[in-house]
Amino acid sequence: MPLTSFEIGYAQEALGRRLTREELVLLEAEWSEHCSYKSTREELKRLKTEAPLVIVGPGRDAGAIKLFDDVAIIARIESHNHPSALDPYNGAATGVGGIVRDVISLGAKPVLLADALYMGSGRTRHSRWLSKNIIRGISDYGNRLGIPTATGLAWFSEAYEKQPLINVACVGIAKPEGILPGSVKPGDPIIMLGNTTGRDGFLGSSFASKPLDESDVAAIQVGNPFIEKLIIEALTEAFDKKLLSLVKDLGGGGLGTAIVETAAQNDVGVVIHLDRVHLREPDLEPFEIIASESQERMIVVPRNEGALGELFSIFDKYGLEYSVIGYFSKERKVKMLFRGLPVVDLPVGLAVSPPKTPREVLGREPCNKEAPMLRNIDLKEAVVKVLSSPRVSLKAVIYEQYDWGVGGRTSLPPGYGDSAVIWLMDNTKRGFAVAVRGNPGYTRLDPFVGAAISFAEAYRRVASVGAEPLAALDNINSGNPEKPEQHYYTLRMIEGIAHASQALNLPVIGGNVSLYNEDESGSMIDPVASVLVIGRIEDVTKALTTIPIGDSPLVLAGDTKTELGGSEVQRVLLGRGYGRPPEFKPIEEKRLGIFAKEVSEKGIANAAHSVSLGGVVATAFKMAYKGGVGVTIESTAICDCDPVEALFSESQARILYEVKREKLQDFLSLAKAFDIKAGVIGNTLKDERLFRLTHRSNKIMELGFEDVSEALEGLENLG
Amino acid sequence: MRRVAIMKYPGTNCENETLYAVRNVSKLDGKVVWHPDFKAREWDAVVLPGGFSYGDYGRAGLIASWSKASRELLNAFDYGLPILGICNGFQVLSELGILPGNLLYNASAKFIAKWVNVKFHNPRGPWLSLISDGEVLPMPIAHAEGRYYIDDVEPIIGEPWAEYLENPNGSIQSIAGVSRKGGVALGIMPHPERATFPWQSLKYTTGGRRIFESIGESLRRGW
Amino acid sequence: MQGYKVLLIVSYKASARDPEGETIAHELRSLGHEEVVSVRAGKAFLFEVKAGSEEDAIESVTRIASETKLYNPSVHEVKVMRVA
Amino acid sequence: MQGYKVLLIVSYKASARDPEGETIAHELRSLGHEEVVSVRAGKAFLFEVKAGSEEDAIESVTRIASETKLYNPSVHEVKVMRVA
Ligand SMILES: Nc1ncnc2c1ncn2[C@@H]1O[C@H](COP(=O)(O)OP(=O)(O)O)[C@@H](O)[C@H]1O
Ligand SMILES: [Mg+2]
Predict the structure, then answer these.
(1) What is the C-alpha to C-alpha distance for residues A545 and A518, in angstroms, rounded to an integer?
(2) How many structural domains comprise chain C?
(3) Residues A119-140: pLDDT tens digits?
(4) Distance A396 CA to ligand 1 centre (A)
(5) What residues are neighbours of ligand 2 (ion), with CB under 5 Å?
(6) Which domains does chain A have, with CATH numbers?
(7) Which CATH architecture does the domain made up of B3-220 adopt?
(8) ipTM of the complex
(9) Which end of chain C is more exposed for a tag (fewer CB within 10 A), N or C?
(10) Interface residue of A94, A217, A280, A320 to substitute, partner C, most C CBs within 10 Å
């Protein structure tokens, strides 16, 4: 959004002169919420960002950790909410494109994509149109790049009917010593690589920093995955030959922002000849060249002069366009020239330091309106309703459009495990696990606890396959920071993430904040924090799936309380969530995580599933249905309380296991050794394809597969 | 050691895992070759791996078929070099007319990625030598344009060919793969290189491994 | 009421990029077809609709396409034409 | 030599079936658009070519399309037309 008169005055005073049009545009992008994080910068400092294995923390295009001594993981998450509301197909597609470029900027080979999608109810034509095109956009772009989209989440609610949230993440691998230092020195030439610069996507980032308005359609960008694929190929070759010292994505804010940020990080100045940039339209004006957000462009800096020739011949081989547009300089100024005339001349320090924007926050305790009691309800109806909720039902219609297996590394594909497990394919069995979680139902009721739970759930899903959680990334999606009652949610979610990262002792190596998610009437979407957790797994063959094999005991590990606040059963029966979300239990989560790793290493379970939406009953029934085996559950074995509470409670820190029959005692003793409550709650069956619930051994409900298949497969008509 | 070229077009995606399988399972000397550099005479076999050559623009495999590698491939086909096209590679070979028929848009009009069961009929030739007739091998598919179509299937089912047990894309006669010259040139839509090691598959099946073992053995025995 | 054939073409607006068309044009030129200045790619839908007149037929396809979101007015342009 | 715009429409022959068109027609009818008899889906390529005359332009697009197999006569139907 345009600079405020206060901000313009601040800049002009610092310079002692008026800003040029080009400088205005540059500062407008650089000082936008999207690029400067002016409303959240202070709060984000509370996150735990340090740990021995962190190689690169937040601040650069992506974060990096050491996975093994000889393998680094590079990752980044980002939202593409605003563009996707207007052009769901290209909005989602270019979201994938941008996140992948961020990850290659550190010298990585991208090997995994994950997506967290918060979409409309599916009951209106508009929301179906949005979802369908969002999914197709991710599919078309990610598949063409040859990067598997192997995990994600899909949430559906009226709150996103017109304003969906699209969070996408990319994970790459590199040798630790192969991570680009990202450092440049005066005299280094700057090469612009990839797509031509055009008027498309003009000032997209400041457009993402204000409420939506139909007149913004000029900012729509069409993604070109084919060019991006060539960029990946070319840069991979250049990385192997060690030809580069810096690679940077031209993302939000375009060339201007990328240049200014690089100069600031390296404490150097920069001189850019705007007329040397390769253009799509020859008549582009200098301010347009600075701010254009045309996709699939990067700046690269060669390691040394001698590398230039070899670099160019790689670009030529792949038919990529490039131009040498300037160089870094000693004097700490951003200078841009057009046909020899200076159009920008700003101190680097000024360009990256917007004046403080005071934001008010209206503290509002979570609205703890207690829920109407959910007892003596028709259990069968409740179960079917929960299973047919699009948030709970099977997601194959989404992930089967994604090439989850390209690369040959996908050891646990979507639909088969709590997290994606990716094999390194390096003549060992080593790999890593990734899960992404977010629950707007909880964050709407309590942004602090809700965000912490997102963190815990992603953590638990990585642990339940048998991996050791190592690092997290978060994506905050929230409302208008200029409205105190909305900004409250943003800050409380950040605090929740900070608290969880400290309590679970997991560093946050990157994140993204998307604000101004409100509709034309000014009401906020359901705010949500997506959290992605990455874990290490020594032997991918030991990873536990969520698919049971039947005829074995079902054991619930973890304590169940009567926690129905913000639960799925409330939403499907009462129309919305009430009360407080379940308690965030970091100590239990950590203990359960270590236990889960031992379970997988000892090979004493067939299947494991973190318990979340819809409680034990939804978790168990989905597992059984996918495995084609029946299941019986005794409600008092979960919790000696009302069956509704036992079955649908969403208490945290629980994993449901199908334990190997002959290893049951080992399993229970191991749980005991960890001081984890664990007990047999039922059995999987072999020949009967049914779901049976009992209460004190009396049958209280029975359903056949055929009674729930329509419910569970209900998403089919979405795609 | 016998040499296998793994052809790379702009947009090819599956060359690395294919190479990994050729080296570690076929135990052959594999190498990824950039398409204009491909000289058929330098190789004992060639694989066209999966991906989206030229973004699949126009039609899957179309623009890749304009490459100058095509003349080499046509030539190689004439003198009997073993050629395998997987997914996009199959699409390229069909565009080139090396393999009969066409791969049209899936009946669902969507990209589909899932595990399928593939039954091999009359398996013969360098790529299928270790597979027995009627054997069912599970492998994943991942494609948008895999609906096999041809006016007359008779000549196809006389040669080695592959069939989906459950037709995922509307292919005529559930055709998943076809061949010519008794299996010397083979095209399949499913991805054997993603079903080569047990941990690539949930069910610990390795349906694709047999293809890589076959070519290894065949070439060593002197195909 | 009579059957009319109406062609609906959906392509990106001229201000937006068109990766498919650009790639095809580029590759055609490098094959030697220098006369190709540009290609824009799009989707074609050939409707047969019952209508009282040709104008009605065109009107009805235009309306259906926009109501059912066969295209996105913020990025696409459409052409509707009668064909024989 | 002047620039001419020529539209090339490629769709599946009836024998090859057209699931996308069939699905769309079906959906449209179930949404209440009873007037839709059928829909065929295809690809549109809008060429701009340099040529001496309109006939030449059409001729040249037809030739390029068939030489490069932008359509495949065994499964596709094709229409070439001049547009304004
Ligand atoms: N947007 C998405 N993209 C990719 N995979 C997804 C997406 N949404 C859900 N999935 C996958 O579908 C499977 C089922 O998802 P979900 O129903 O959320 O969880 P659960 O594992 O509890 O059944 C998971 O493997 C998940 O990774
Ligand atoms: Mg970026």
Answers:
(1) 39
(2) 1
(3) 999 999 999 999 999 999 999 9
(4) 8
(5) A 98, 102, 249, 251
(6) 388-718 (3.30.1330.10)
(7) 3-Layer(aba) Sandwich (3.40)
(8) 0.95
(9) C
(10) A217
